[in-house]
Fold these 3 entries.
Entry 1:
Amino acid sequence: MAHAHTHKVKRYSGIKDWLTTVDHKKIGILYLIAGGFFFLVGGLEALLIRIQLWKPMNDFVSADTFNELLTMHGTTMIFLAAMPMLFALMNAVVPLQIGARDVAFPFVNSLGFWTFLFGGILLNVSWFAGGAPDAGWTAYAPLAGTTYSGDHGVDYYVLGLQIAGIGTLIGGINFLVTIINMRAPGMTFMRMPLFTWTAFITSALILFAFPALAVGLAALMFDRLFDGNFFDPSGGGNAVLWEHIFWIFGHPEVYILILPAFGVISEVISTFSRKRLFGYSSMVFATILIGFLGFMVWAHHMFTTGLGPVANALFSIATMLIAVPTGIKIFNWLFTMWGGSIKFTTANLFAVGFIPTFVMGGVTGVMLAAAPADFQYHDSYFVVAHFHYVIVGGLILGIFAGLHYWWPKMFGRVLNETLGKLTFWTFFIGFHLTFFIQHFLGLLGMPRRIWTYLDGLGFNEMNMISTIGAVLMGFGTIFFLLNIVTTSFKPKNASGDPWEDGRTLEWTIPSPPPEYNFAQTPLVRGYDAYWKEKMEGHSGMTPAEPIGPIHMPSPSILPFFMGLGLFIAGIGFMYAQDWGNLFDGFKLGYAIGIAGLLILFLCMFLRSVYDDHGFHIEEEEILRDKGGKA
Amino acid sequence: MASNHTATEENAKRHKVEGPKKHIIAFIFSILLTFIAFATVISGEINKDFIYIILIGLAILQVFVQMAFWMHMKDRGHTFAIIGILTGVFIASTCVIMAEYWAWW
Amino acid sequence: MSAHSHADGQLPHEPEKATLEGRNKVLGFWLFLGGETVLFGTLFSAFLALRHQVLDGPPAHELFSLPLVALATALLLTSSLTSVFAVYALHTHRVKALIGWLIVTVVLGLGFLGLEIYEFYHYVHEGHGFTTSAFSTSFYTLVGFHGAHVAFGILWISLIIAQLMKKGLTVVTAPKVYVAGMYWHFIDVVWVFIFTVVYLMGKVV
C-alpha cells in the first residue's frame, strides 16, 4: 500500500548501524571480526600449550592451567572461531552466488550472530571468574560432573555452548530456506556454485546435529546445576551415554566444518585454472553422500569404549566408506587443474596446498578407522596430528583461501599478494612442522592432553620441532593481520571482477556490492552463469526484471538484546547456588536468570506484535548507484 | 495473484465441501488407535515383546495419519518439508538404536 | 511484490503462502520441526537408555496411572483437531471462526498442562523426585521438555489471537496462524510417542 513507500527510511550509521544491521554482507563482516578475534584467542592458547611442551618437565604453566588451556583451545577453535568464520563466508557469498537480495530471514540472521557472540563471550568470561572449563572440549562424564569438576568451569562450557549453539542452529535454518526459496530465475539446483551447495549441506547437518548437542548440554546442565542423574553412575546414570550423544552431534560437526572448505577450494581452483569444475555433478553427489555418512559413524570415536566387535566392525566399515566420496573430490580438483592455465595467486596457493595436506589427514583417518589399530592410536598424539591435519590443513587453509579470494568482494580492496604469499609459506611450512612430527610422537606413545613428560622418552626433539612450527604459524597469522591493516589504508578501488576470471554471480556486481546486491535480479542461463555470458561475448547478466523500487527489511536492535538476555540468564542460573537469597526461599541467581529470560521474551513479543514494514530503495537511488560505480 | 481470484475462490469452495470431513475421520482414526493401544496394555494378556511391537506400530500409524492429514504433508509443494521431517526421523531413530543397543555394555 | 497488496480483504485461498516472506516462514518452520524431531529423538533415547535405573524410587508400572494419561491424551488430541479447524477457517477466511477455534485450542492446552502439573506434583509426593534416580531425571526431562513446548505454544497462540483481533486476517498474520498450527500438531505427534513409550511401555511389566 501507499504507506509502505512513504515510510521514513530508517538508516543508521556508525556503531548503531553495526548493532542493528540485518544486511547479510555486514553480518558476514561481524562474523569475520568476532570469529577472527576468537581465532587469535584460540591461537594464543595453542602457543601457550606448545611453549609448555617444548621441553621435558617444563613448568611454564601449572597442570590445572594446562587443562584449561587445552579445553578452551579446542572449544574456542571449533565453536567460536572456525564455525563463525565459515558463517562469515557463507553470509558474504551465498546470497550473491544465488542472485538474491538478502537471506530469507534477515532478522534471524542478525539474531544468530548476536546469540553466537554472547555465548562465546560467556564461555570466555570463565577465565576471569575463577577458572575456565577443564574437562576437555568433549567434556566427558563423569569428569565433567560435579564430583570431579566442582567449580563453575564446566558450567560456563555448558551454558556458553548452549547459547552459541542456538545462534548456529537458526543460522543453519536461515541458509537452508535462503537457498531453497530465494534463487534467481534459472538458478536450478544443478546450476548452483559448489560453495553454495556445500553451504546448503552444511546447514542441513547443522539443523540435524545441533539439537542433539542441545539435549546433551541440557542434560549435563541438569546434572550439574540441579543434581540430575543422566551421566552419574551413582544415581543410576550412564557415562557412556554422554559420549554417544556428544559424538552423534560431534561427528557431523566435523563435516559441518570441512564441507564449506571443500566448496571454497572448488571455487578457487576452478577460477584460477580458468576451467569449469571437473565432474560438477559428482562433486554435488559426493557432498551429499559425505553429509549422510557423517551421521552414521559417530561411534568410531568410541572404539575403545567396549561396544563389542559387531558395533566396532559396523562403524569401522561406515567410516572407511567416507574415503570414497572424499577421494572423488580430490581427483576432481586435480582434474580441474589438469591442462588449465593456472594462476598461483595467494588464494590458489592455499587451495593447492590444501589438497595434499587434506589427503594426509584423510589417510590417517582411514588408519584410525581400522578398529583394532585404533586401540593403539587412541588417545595418543597420532590422533592430535590427524584431526589437526583435517581441521587446520583442511578447514583453516580453506578459510584462508576463501578470505583472500572474496576479500575484494567483501571490502572492495584486493589484499596484497606479496604479503599474502608470505602468509601462505610461513603458515603452511609452520603447520607441517608442527603437526607432521606429532604422528610419530603418537606412535612412540606420547598420550594426548598430557601436561608434561619425562626426559629420556625420546619425545624431546620432536616436541621442540613442533613448538617451532607453532611459532611459525603464529608469524603466518601476524603477516595476515598486517596485510589486512595495510590494505585497509589503500583506496577502495577493486573492480566488480577483480580476478578477471570470475565465473559466478557475485563477480557481476560491484565490490563491495550495494545494499540491495542486484539492481536487477539476473537471469541465470547455465552453470557458471557469469562465465557463460562472458564466453558468449556479453558484458554482464541478462536482467530478469526491470529496474524498480526495492523492498528492504528494517534494521533492528532486538537481536542484540535477545543475545544479551540469554547471557544474563546464563550467568544468573549458574551462580544461583552461590549468591544467596533475594528474599526468603528465592535465590538471587534465579531472579537474575528469570530477568534475563524476560528480556528475551519481551523482545520476541515486540518482534511479533510490531510488523516490520521495511522500507523501499527508490529507483533514482539505484540508477545513481549504477551510474557512479559502473 | 489478484487476476486468478475466481479460480482461488472456486478452489476454496471445493475445499469447503471435503475439508473438515477428512479431518474428523482422521480424528476418529487417531482416537481408535489410541484406544487400541491403551486396551492392549490394560488387558495385559499378551507377551511383553509382542506388546512393544504392537504399541510402536500403532504409534507410528497414528503419527503417519496425523502428519498426512492434519499437517497437510500429503499435499503438493511439501517436498522439502517431507525431506526435512524424514531426515529428522531417520537421525532420531539412530539415537534410539544407540540407546537400545550400545548405551550399556 | 509488496506484502500489503492483499491487506484489504482480497485474500488468496492460502494466504499463508501468498508472500515470499510467508513461504519462507512456512518452509523454515518445517525445517525447524525436522530439527525438533532430532531434539526429541535424543531425549527419547536418553529416557530409553535410563528407564530401568529406578534405584530406590517407585518403578514405572507402580507409578503411572493410565486414566490420567488417557484424559491428557484425549485433551491434546482434541486440541489438535480444533487447531486443524482453525487452519481450515483460515483457508476459508472466516476470522471469527478462526479466533474461536484457536481459543478452544488454548483452553484444551491449558487443561493438558494443568493435568501434567498435577501429575508431577503427585509423583513427587510418591517419592519420584527429579533427583531420585536416572529414570526420574530422564522422565522429567523428556516429559517436561514436552510440557514446556505446550506452555510456550499456549502463550504463542494467545498472542496470535490478540493480533488477529487487532489486525485481522492479513498476509502478515496468516503465516503466523499456519505455523503455530504446525507447531501444535507437532506437539501432539510427540505426545503420541510419549504416551506410547513412557506410559504404556512403562506399564508393561
Entry 2:
Amino acid sequence: MSFLAQTMRQVLRQVPSRTAALAGGMRSLSISPAFLQQNKPATESVDISAISKDQQKECSNICERINQQVAKSEQGRLFAVVHLCGKQFKITPGDIILVEGYWPPTIGDEISLDKVLLAGARDFTLVGRPILEPGLVSVKATVVEKTLTHTKTHFRKKRRKQYMRINFQRSPNTMIRINSIELARPVDGNSEAEVEPSKRLF
Amino acid sequence: MVFLNLALMVRARGPDEFWRKRRIFKLAAHYRSRTRNVYSFAIRSVHRALAYATKGRKLKKLDMAQLWTTRVEAGCQQYGMGLETFKDGLARSDILLNKKMLSDLAIWEPRSFEALVNISRERAAVEGLPDIKRRSAFNQVYGLRNLKLD
Amino acid sequence: MSNSHLFMKSGFPRAPLQNGLGRYVCQLQRITLKFCKNNGSSRGMRDFIENHLVDFAKENPGIVVYVKPRRHRTPVLVGEYLNGDREWLNCRNNTQEEISKWIDLLKTQNGSSSSLRLRKMWHTDVPSIQGPWTPFLLRSPETQGQVYPNTEASKPLETPQSATEKLIELFRQQQLEAGEEAHDLLSKKRAE
C-alpha cells in the first residue's frame, strides 16, 4: 500500500515538472523516431497502450512542433553526425571532411551519406538508435579531392643493438565537401513508442 | 666523386660522404649549438627526433582519446552524472555515438548534449543503475530544474 | 620526417574557391609528359603514350596534355594546377600501370599536396549551431545579484537523512496508510 502511494506521489511530482520543461521552450527536446531493428524484438514489442495518455500527447505535440517549424523553414541550419568509413563526423553544410585510407569514390562524385546517427538544429535534436530511420535526413556530399598524405618517416632504432630500420609511407586521403543536410520528410508521430521518457512509467 | 685508383673505389662504401651528411644536416638545420653543425652530434639528435616522431604519431591518438574522455566526463558532471553511468545509459538505449562526437556535442551543441544526458538518465533510472541520484557539483545549475531527480 | 621539421609546412584542409559547392571543377589544367624515344628508362612512358594517352585526353577535355620527347633524359611527369602549383614527378623505370596511377593521382588532387602536413581532418566555417558552451550556460541569472556570504548558497548539496527525520517520515507514512484504511472503511460503510 505504501509502495503504491509512493509511486503515485512520484507521478504527481513528475507531471508538473515535465510541463514546466516543455513550457521552457523546445530547448532540450529529444525524440527518437522508430528505427525498428530486426535483432531487437524487445524494443519492438513496446505496447503503446501501456503508456499514459498525456505522455503520448506530449510526444505527438513535440513532433508536430518540429514539423511546423520545418514546414515554415524556420529551423535554420541543420547539423548531423554521420558514420563514414569507421569514423564519426559532425557536419553541417559547407564542411570539408577527410577520409583516410583507400576509398573507391573518385573526384566529382556526388554521394549521399546514409548512416546518420544524430541530426539537430537550433531547437530540436533527432537521436538515432543507433541510426536514424533511412530517408528521414538526407545528407548530400561531393568528393573534391583524392590525394596522398605527406611522406611519413617510420624510423625505429635500438641503442647499442645495431638495429635501425627506416621506411617511408604515404596513404591515400579523400576530401569530401558536404553540400546539404535536409529533413526529407516530416517526423512521424506514430513513433511515440520509441520515445525514451515514456518508458519511465512501466 | 672521382676515384684516382681502384683501391680507393673499393674502399668507398655507400653514397658519397657529402650527400650522406647533407641529408642529416638538412634535418638538423633548426637545432641549436653543435647539434646543428657537428655531424656526430647532429646524427644522434636527428635519429632521436625521427624515432620520437614515429612514436608520437601513435601517442597523439591516445592523447586525443584521453582528452575526449575528460571532456565528456566534465560535460556530464555538470548535470550531476558520472561518465560510466552516462555511457552505459547511452549504450543501453542503442545510441552509439563515440567519445569524439560526444565531446564535440558537449562543447559546440550543448542543448543536444543535454538531451542525450536526459535520455541516458531516464534509461539508467529504468534499468536501476546506481549513481543517478548524485547532485551536480555546481551549486546553481539552471538545467537541473528540467532534469527529474527523484 | 619529424613534425617540427623546417621544410614541411603544416596546414588545415581547404578546398580552393568553394569547389564542390555548386559543380565540381577539375583543378589540373596542364600535364606534360617528358620522355626519351630510345632510352630504356622511359619504356613504360612510351607504352603509356602509345596505348592510353589518347583515351586519357578524350576522357578529360579540360586538361591540356603536352608530350615532349627529349634525348637521353629520364621520363618526367609535370602537372600544373589552377592555384598555380606545379607538381614534378620522376618516372624513371616506371611501368605503364605505375605511370597511369601517377597520372590519376595528378588528376585527382587539388595542388601539390606532398609538402603539407594536415593538422586536422575536418574543416567547418560554422562550428556551432546552438551556440557553444560557456561557463554561464547552466547558471541561473539570480547568481548575478547574489550577495555573499549567503546561507542558501553555502549549504551542502546533499544532507543525509538523520534518524529523527527517518522516524518522522515513517510515522507520517503509517498515518497515511491508516488514513487510507479508514477512508476505505468509511466508503464501504457508505456503500452499505
Entry 3:
Amino acid sequence: MSDAVLEVKNLDVDYGLGDDAVHAVRDVNLTLHRGEVLGLAGESGSGKSTLAYGLTRLLPPPGVIAGGEVVYHGENGETADIMRMTDDQLRAFRWAETAIVFQGAMNSLNPVHKISTQMTDVIKAHDPRSTPRSRLDRAREMLALVGISADRLEAYPHQLSGGMRQRVMIGMALALDPRIVIMDEPTTALDVVIQRQILGQLIELRERLGFSVLFITHDLSLLVEFSDRIAIMYGGRIVEEAPADEIYQDSLHPYSDGLLHSFPALRGPRRELTGIPGSPPDLRAMPTGCAFHPRCPKAFDPCAADLPLLGIPESHADATTNGQPRTVACWLHPIR
Amino acid sequence: MTASGTTASASETTEVVLEADGLTKHFPVRKRGREVLSKVTKVVRAVDDVSLSLRRGRVTALVGESGSGKSTVARLLAQLHERTAGDIKLHGESVSVKSGRKFRAYSRRVQMIFQDPFASLNPVHTVRYHLTRALKIHDRAGKSKQDLEKALADLLTRVQLTPPERYVDKFPHELSGGQRQRVAIARALGADPEALLADEPVSMLDVSIRLGVLNLLRDLKQRLNLAILYITHDIASARYFADETIVMYAGRVVEGGDSETVTQRPAHPYTRLLIDSAPDPDQIAAHKAKAGDRGTGEPPSLIKPPSGCRFHPRCPHVMDRCETELPPRFDIGDGDGHFAACWLFAREEG
C-alpha cells in the first residue's frame, strides 16, 4: 500500500452560518495516496467542487469549513493540518505543494499579460532568489513538458487556442513540482480529441514526475479510464469508493450503477438506457435518511429513515484486490 | 400536411420535411487598420456546401467539435442567419424568409431548442407565460380561457411534467435543469412544428438526467412524427439516439450514413479519430498501450482553411492529392447511404 499524501478527515463545509446554513459537504473522509489518480465524480450540486476548494482553503465566502481536518504528509514524513495553517504558511504551501487547475482554466489566464510573465511570476513568488534567466528557463521547460513550442512564451492568452491555454495552465500548475495536483473539470470545455491528448499527457507526466492527482469531473466514463480509484459523491456525501475497474464492473451503490448506465456506449450492443429518474436533491431541503432514496429504484424501509454510513461492506470484506478496501454507504450492503 | 401513418422503415419511403442543399455561410471579418482601404473582405467560412435532409419520424444527428459549424447549420435552417449560398427547402419548396409574417409562418413549422435552458427561459416569467406566448403567437391558444388551460396542460403532459398544475405557475429558477429543458421543449411544441432543430439539447444537463430528455425527444418523435435534427459533440449519444449521423469537420460534411454504420465502421480518418478519442471504459488496457499514437493538432482556422481536404494537415493517411483537391462524397457501399468525403475511397468509385 502506497503512503498517503493527503488525508481528509470528517470534513464538513457549509454555505452560510447558523440555522440557514446549507450543508454542501458532509462528513467526507478521503485519502489520496502517492502517485495515484483519485477520481471524484458526482452531478452538479453534489459538493465535489466545494470539497476541492474546501480542502485547499480557497473557499470564497459565504463558504465555511464547519469541521474536520485535512492532513498533509510532507516529503520527509512531517504532517500539517491545512485547516490550521496561518496565512503565511498557506501562501508557501499553495502551488508549491498543491496546485489546482480550475474548471474554466482557459479563462484563468490574465488576458493582459504574456504567458512568460505569468509563468515566471509564479516561480518568483515562491523563490524570490531565483534569477530571471533561470525562471525563464524553467518556464520554457514547463511549456515543452506540456507540448507547446517555446516561442509561444511571448504570446498573449488570446493568441492561443483553448486546448493550448489549458495546457499552459497544467504547465503552470506543475512549475513548482507540486506533490498534489487538483483538477476541477479540467477538460469539460474542450473537444474529445483535445481532451484525450491532454489527459494522455497528464498521465504520462504523472508517471514521470510522480505527483498525485485529485481529478474532479461529472464524466464517469472518463474517470473509469483515467483514474486508479474513484469516489462518488451524492448530496454532499461520498456514497461509494473503490478501485476504478471494480466500480465499473461491480458497482454496489444504486447511484453509481445509475450513473454508469447514463452513458450510451460507443461499442458493443445498443441497449435501452433510462438514466436516473427525478432530479438531483436540493441542498436546502435534503431528503431524510439516504439522500438518494427518492430516486432509488431499490429503496426499502430503512432508506427513508436512517442515514447509511460509509463503510466496508460485509459482502466485499475480504475482496481487497490491491490492498485498498472498497467502501459504500447503502442499506443494501450492510457494513461490518 | 398529412400525418403519414407509416413508420420510418426505409429511408426512401419517408417524406423529406426539411432539406439543405449546398448550404454555405460565410461571416465577414471586421477590417482593421489598413485593411479598411482594401476591397478584399476576409470571411470566416463557417459552413461550406452542407447538404442534408430531415425526414418525418427520423432523427438526424450532426456531430462535430466546437467550431465545426454545426450550430450555424441549425441557425441557418431556422432562418436565424441569412445564408451566403445554397438552398433550404421545406417540403421541396425553396424558402428564404427574414422576418415578419413569412418568418412566423416558417417558424410555425420549424422550431428550435437551444443548448442552455438556463438562458433560453426568461427568469422573470412563469412557465405559463412562456407557453401561452408560444401558443398565442402561433394561433393555437383557442378561443376561451378553458381552451388555453387545456392546451397548456396538454403541452406539459407531453413533456412529462405531470401533474401540469404543479409546474404551470413556477418560475424558471424553481425548476431543475432537466425540467427547464422540458419547458423549452414544450414551448417549441407549442407551435406544433414538423421539424425540430435541437442544438445540443442535453449538454448542459446533469449526466443522470440527459437520457431522460433524450428518451423524451425520441418518444415525441414517434408520437408526433417529428423530423429532428440533433446537434451534438458526443458521437456516442448520436449512436444511441439518432437514426442517421452526419459528421462535420471545419465547416464541411466529411461522413454520413446510418448511425450504426457510421459509429461501428467509420470510414473517414476524422470520424475514426473522433471515435477513438471518446472515453471508453472497456478499453482501459488498450488505451494505456497506445497512449502515444493519438492524433495531434487542432482544428484549422476557418478564415484561411487548408487547401484541398480541410483535414489533411492532421490526417494520418494524407496523400499528395489531399492537399490540392477537395474530395467529393464517395459512396462506401457497406450500408444504405454511407458516404465519406475522402480520397481514400476514390478507387471504389472507379
